[in-house]
Amino acid sequence: MSAYLIVDTKINDAETYEEYKKLAKPIAEKFGGVYRARGGELDVRETGLWTPTRVVIIEFSDMKSAQAFIDSDEYQPVKLMRQNNADCTLFIVDGD
Question: How many CB atoms lie within 10 A of CB 89?
């Protein structure tokens, strides 16, 4: 069953965040991640719980692969770069 890593990001340092994107993508792909959305235009219809800012969706083959990416030693310094330069909400959800 596919799993989707979804991140809503408010970028605080655009230049550093561009470097983050270059580093994160090949690591996600190493774990089977396929980017399905990466900060495209939003058409927000309801905001009862939160108002998204910049949404990224990465599809993985399953929950374990998505978790392995997020928890990997290789991603940790890159994740820290994201955390230091953006405010984020990140979660993984099972697909169909």
Answer: 13
Domain residue extents for the chain = 3-44+53-94
For the chain, give percent helix, strand, coil, nearest 5.
40, 30, 30
**pTM of the full structure:** 0.94
Beta-sheet strands, E only, within the chain: 3-11, 34-38, 55-60, 86-94
- 3-state SS class at 86: strand
The confidence score (pLDDT) of residue 96 equals 79
Identify the architecture of domain 3-44+53-94 in CATH.
2-Layer Sandwich (3.30)
